[in-house]
Specification:
- Its main location: membrane.
- It is a multi-pass membrane protein.
- Keywords: Cell membrane, Ion transport, Membrane, Sodium, Sodium transport, Symport, Transmembrane, Transmembrane helix, Transport.
- By secondary structure, the protein is an all-alpha fold.
- The chain is built from 21 helices and no strands.
- The protein has a single domain, classed as Up-down Bundle (Sodium/glucose cotransporter), CATH 1.20.1730.
- The chain starts with a helix and ends with a helix.
Amino acid sequence: MEEQNIYIWLIGALLVIYFVFTTWLGKKGAIHSRTMKGFSIAKGKVNPWIVGVSFGASYASANLFLGVPGWAYTYGAPTLWWTLGCFGITWLGLLLFTRTFWRQGQKMGGILTLPQWLGKKYNSKLLQVMIAVLILFNIYYIVGQNVGLATMFETVMGIPYTWGIAIGVIITIVYVSLGGAFAQLISDGIQGIIMSVTSVLLFISLIWTIGGGWNFLGKLQSDLAAIDPNLVQPVATSGPFHSGFAILTIQWLLFSFVLLPHLMNKVLTLDDEKQLRPFTLSAGLTLFFLSVLSVFAGMAARVLSPGLAAADGAIPTYIMEAFPPIIVAVIVAGLISAILSTTDSLYLGITSSIGNDLYKTLVVPFLYKDKQLSKQEIDKKVVKATKVSLVIIGIVSLYMSIERPASLALLTQFGISAIISGIIAPISLGYFWKYAHKYGAIASVIFGSGTFMVLTGFEIVPGVFEALFYSSIIGFAVMIAVSLVTAYAIKSTNNKLGNRTA
């Protein structure tokens, strides 16, 4: 009990410092968040190296520090397929998608969100609105972060689960509403550095927790094999890594992960093509530190603390055994940073889309159709609506988080996969295929995401990742088919009109 009181005071003090700092950042960024451009992307206001670290920090959610180590605790070595994919496959996706996305965004001009990028690309307001609605599924991702934060507070500090959720929601909403993208990017950049140090500490600690000197990984392998030989096999007997095909579908998710709106918005922040190089380099380095190292602590927790009631508590339990209170406090602060850095990006991405793609596109023309408002006046109303939606989304996510899910990792992947299955074909084919058409893109969103809902909702496919893979394939097939039919119909119509004119 006395040790837990020490944790409460130390971590509480760090949280107070964090809250003061982020509030200061929010006020500092307030000058940039008076317009939608400043609030949603803070274009050109933040160093590209920091934006890259912010990308990695936003990517490394509670899932990477709690959910995936929870998988490592349960399934052992097969979880490494996930972490290796996070670094290598995701970074490859970033390198392939970023430059073209940025260049086309510059040509379109005034792009603030991914739905707007797609709407301009295909000249379709309907597509823009559909993608904006689809992005609302990211609330499941926010719920995952809330649950991870509450789990951390509950395990280490003894704070009730619901109070932990409320603390995270309040802190994040305050500084995002004040400073928008500027505050989010700077705070995430700092958090990414703290998280990288935390990951290195977790990995190094295996030397004294597992033992074996410099052969601590070999010792960990032998200890896991002694518990269950399946824990050191390349493929698990159950769960997400139960087959080679299942592992390939996971790599597909991680490759397409960079297309998520709260991550691609980071690319729109850059105002010069030369900034893409430092951005992608710092993002890649951050991804390596954050995705690869912490999973080993999850496996070590299986050796040191077998029989945990909840696998997602593996990392909090491990650090309390591995480090003295002052280091535990610092590491917990780093883990909390991992959670908040994703949460603030998600809040910003969802609410920016609500304001820019839904409110401005659907509501403004209806409410103010008879008023002669300037662009600046409209922009102010959109910013206000965006900040109001931030509070509403925060309250909704808090309510949805009250009941703890069975698996944090699977919860976060559900919302992500629903979005990816709808947008991957329109974005990818829009890059290079000259026949890509707006009707094909619209059909792809409907059938891609719709198929995912059906496959998971009716449990037709047992795994989320397999469902995403099948849904993405259907999304590509439908878009190609509809685009070709549309192109043929347009060509036939033009030929008929030409013949009549002749």
